[in-house]
Specification:
alpha+beta; Catalase HpII,  Chain A, domain 1; 10-stranded antiparallel sheet; 10 strands
């Protein structure tokens, strides 16, 4: 059946291509509403670009539970083996702009929205289990160093390495970034991590600390630096194309969902701060526990409606899952919903991709992006005498015992918090193969050769000190690659 062309208000019209004018060659008429509607909408087609994670890809899928973890959590998403929950995942580049290449050396975002019957649970992580900073106050500074120089408007290795060298806590993530893991072969061949420490709460109201892991069933596959550069000249949208076409072919990517758990007692006596985002938990001490399988099996019908308008916030946890004292997580609880309200409007959770498919009852009304009935005729205040909406005490979390009642601004590099080198050294010596160690060194040398200006050697030497503290061999190889006199770092002090 043929469809009539209409305005957004549903009004049919005839002239979509030709403007009304005074005569064949005269000026246009102000009354040509279609001309104005088309141009006005066109100039507003772009919503504000995400400050970080601007370029991304996404798909719908499901989480199927394969193992019982009820000893740790009462969350309904996990409450039965075989249970399936719909989800949406958005993959992304962290520092790149919306038009950047998808083979750039950059961490990848791994943001997940689970549509559970207790509300939407957002697990917003990366393809790395750690991050560059461990206090959210530093996040704007870090991102500014990775973006464009305010004078040249160019990406600046000098800015990036200056920040890294002045913040030794970044070293662990820098090692991941400079390895071939920094240039994954699309999104299907990389792991995902919740990265932060979260908490699980069981039916007995007992709390356990947790880290979430998603292991790709497709196998890890990365570009070398040279391969990534070549692909950048061929296809800027490699990862988007790879994910989209794989799902269209019926090759649905899958990840095994696993968790690590740590008791509150173990956390109190652990060797380091278990809420430090720059560190991982030992898999020997806290082995991975199988939970389920994530599968992506449906491409969105419209990229902008779903992928671009998808909005994630670590603040969105559901009953049985909670926060932790992780300082970066605590900052993200505030900043992520705030970013979505700026980018999409205060009612961003009404947009279909973000909307909870189950019951939603609250007293929020009005504002931008009201796409539902705005609460209809129901009261917009609480308490009231007309509806029967009541808080449910069954959803109360157990009290969290704090180890201090002193309010202060604590040094993130204080004694006990300042070992920035042990885990990067282990990563270099034990996690990477000989070939991958050579690749990491070559990538570091290439990146640091871009440092310029009068502070060049100061920045290089400061960063080399970090590499030497992590592993003597690593420091020596990088120094030689940069043609720096290694005797400066081997002489007794």
């Amino acid at each position: 059946m043929e469809k009539k062309l209409t305005t957004a208000a549903g009004i049919p019209y005839a002239h979509h291509e030709d403007s009304q004018s005074v005569g064949q060659r005269g000026p246009l008429l102000l009354q040509d509403f279609i001309l104005h509607e088309k141009l006005a909408h066109f100039t507003r087609e772009r919503i504000p670009e995400r400050v970080v994670h601007a370029k991304g890809s996404g798909a719908y899928g499901s989480l199927t539970i394969t193992n019982d973890i009820s000893a740790y959590t009462r969350a309904k998403v996990f409450n039965a083996i075989g249970k399936t929950t719909k989800l949406f995942i958005r993959f992304s580049l962290v520092a790149g702009e919306k038009g950047s290449s998808e083979t750039e050396r950059d961490p990848r975002g791994f943001a997940m929205k689970f549509y559970t019957e207790d509300g939407n649970w957002d697990l917003v992580g990366n393809n790395t289990p750690i991050f560059f900073i461990k206090d959210g106050k530093k996040f704007p500074d870090f991102i500014h160093s990775e973006k464009r120089d305010p004078y040249t408007n160019l990406k600046s290795p000098t800015m990036a390495w200056d920040f890294f060298s002045l913040n030794p806590e970044s070293l662990h993530q820098v090692m991941f970034l400079m390895s071939d893991r920094g240039t994954p072969y699309g999104y299907r061949h990389m792991h995902g991590f919740g990265s932060h420490t979260f908490s699980l709460i069981n039916a007995k109201n007992e709390r356990t600390w947790v880290k979430f892991h998603f292991k790709t069933q497709q196998g890890i596959k990365n570009f070398t630096d040279a391969e990534a550069a070549l692909e950048k000249s061929v296809d800027l949208d490699f990862a988007q194309r790879d994910l989209l076409t794989a799902i269209d072919r019926g090759e649905f990517p899958k990840w095994d969902m696993k968790i690590q758990v740590m008791t509150e007692a173990q956390a109190e006596t652990y060797a380091f701060n278990p809420f430090d985002l720059t560190k991982t938990w030992s898999h020997k001490e806290f082995p991975l526990i199988d939970v389920g399988v994530v599968e992506l099996n449906e491409n969105p019908k419209n990229y902008h409606a779903a992928v671009e308008q998808s909005a994630f916030a670590p603040a969105h946890v559901v009953d049985g899952i909670g926060y932790s004292p992780d300082r970066v997580l605590q900052a993200r609880i505030l900043s992520y919903p705030d970013a979505q309200r700026y980018r999409l409007g205060v009612n961003y959770e009404d947009i279909p991709v973000n909307r909870c498919p189950y019951m939603v009852n609250n007293y929020q009304r009005d504002g931008l992006m009201v796409t539902g009935d705005n609460g209809g005729s129901e009261p917009n205040y609480f308490p009231n005498s007309f509806d029967n909406i009541q808080p449910d005490p069954a959803y109360t979390e157990p009290a969290l015992q704090l180890n201090s009642n002193v309010v202060d601004t604590f040094d993130r590099n204080a004694p006990g918090e300042n070992d920035h080198y042990t885990q990067p050294g282990i990563f270099f010596r034990e996690t990477l193969s000989d070939e991958l160690r050579l690749s990491l060194v070559a990538n570091v040398v290439k990146a640091m050769k871009g440092i310029e200006g009068p502070k060049k050697m100061e920045i290089i030497n400061r960063q080399l000190c970090h590499f030497f503290r992590a592993d003597i061999g690593l420091g020596m190889q990088v120094a030689r690659g940069l043609e720096v006199d290694v005797s400066l770092f081997t002489q007794p002090h």
